[in-house]
């Protein structure tokens, strides 16, 4: 405490250098806190569960060979072939799948001519989807074979049995999401009876605010103008083997083509490629700023040591020990860092408010601001230790020789 006022007096004399260093600390704090928060938010986003057994699931896209009125029968035959491959746990036809980037969405209504009560993604499949996708039923019942409609048209326009995700149920019935079971949802002008609720099933778009709000209809759909999209789940550890055997099995049919095949891990990696790249860029920016600030503090401390050699020597001659000298420079750095953190704190809040408006993210939590404060202080103290230790080794005799 006895060094505090001499330090303030010293900083007042220097003016420009401490002000520049304070601004550098403030900017670093402001950017570092918001960068760390954005990286954390993106990391949470990339780790959200799809609801599928991703490690053992792939999807395959193949062509239809039959006449338009026979595509349903052909798709059922394709499914039988795939289910017969050793190591297959389940296979089901889906016009879209989690995170693939293409699919259908719709608004939901509780009355035919009422107001929209929510929106979300639409998927359709059969009674095999529960096992194939490894979905978790948390309310109501799953489809039975008699629930499943078969059509060569778009299934969203057909009255059907549906299950919904918990996220969608909570959106429509926020007080008690279980109340949705047994109700009728209307979309695309058709009534759909809600049989049950599944815990999680993400729809096609990872960037969408309604990615977890999904309705799965009991509709086995095959359109002549589109290829057949089939999700396949394998026994653990047999993914690659089953993929190869599935291709071999399907290609035994003359004219059959495999238009696309991908694992769910590859789908996730592709879906979040931009988020991962952005996180890496933000990390590089944060680390770079931290290094630049540390070098700035280090350089300022070294300059102060060389400029105050005589002053240091005088203090040593008057009885100051090495620790007193080290403490002086560390406290001086703490004062500069404190002022910088206060300014940076205000700047971080202002910058975050802009991000909240532009990017629709949540405000930065207090924990990030506290963590940023600790990091800046530790960074400053580590950067000043070497110059301060070097200053403490100045001999009183050498330092005062020019007096």
UniProtKB/TrEMBL annotation:
<dbReference type="Pfam" id="PF12704">
    <property type="entry name" value="MacB_PCD"/>
</dbReference>
<dbReference type="GO" id="GO:0022857">
    <property type="term" value="F:transmembrane transporter activity"/>
</dbReference>
<keyword id="KW-1133">Transmembrane helix</keyword>
<keyword id="KW-0472">Membrane</keyword>
<feature type="transmembrane region" description="Helical">
    <location>
        <begin position="325"/>
        <end position="351"/>
    </location>
</feature>
<dbReference type="InterPro" id="IPR050250">
    <property type="entry name" value="Macrolide_Exporter_MacB"/>
</dbReference>
<comment type="similarity">
    <text>Belongs to the ABC-4 integral membrane protein family.</text>
</comment>
<feature type="transmembrane region" description="Helical">
    <location>
        <begin position="281"/>
        <end position="305"/>
    </location>
</feature>
<protein>
    <submittedName>
        <fullName>Uncharacterized protein</fullName>
    </submittedName>
</protein>
<feature type="transmembrane region" description="Helical">
    <location>
        <begin position="366"/>
        <end position="386"/>
    </location>
</feature>
<keyword id="KW-1003">Cell membrane</keyword>
<feature type="transmembrane region" description="Helical">
    <location>
        <begin position="20"/>
        <end position="40"/>
    </location>
</feature>
<feature type="domain" description="MacB-like periplasmic core">
    <location>
        <begin position="52"/>
        <end position="241"/>
    </location>
</feature>
<dbReference type="InterPro" id="IPR025857">
    <property type="entry name" value="MacB_PCD"/>
</dbReference>
<dbReference type="GO" id="GO:0005886">
    <property type="term" value="C:plasma membrane"/>
</dbReference>
<dbReference type="Pfam" id="PF02687">
    <property type="entry name" value="FtsX"/>
</dbReference>
<dbReference type="InterPro" id="IPR003838">
    <property type="entry name" value="ABC3_permease_C"/>
</dbReference>
<keyword id="KW-0812">Transmembrane</keyword>
<feature type="domain" description="ABC3 transporter permease C-terminal">
    <location>
        <begin position="285"/>
        <end position="396"/>
    </location>
</feature>
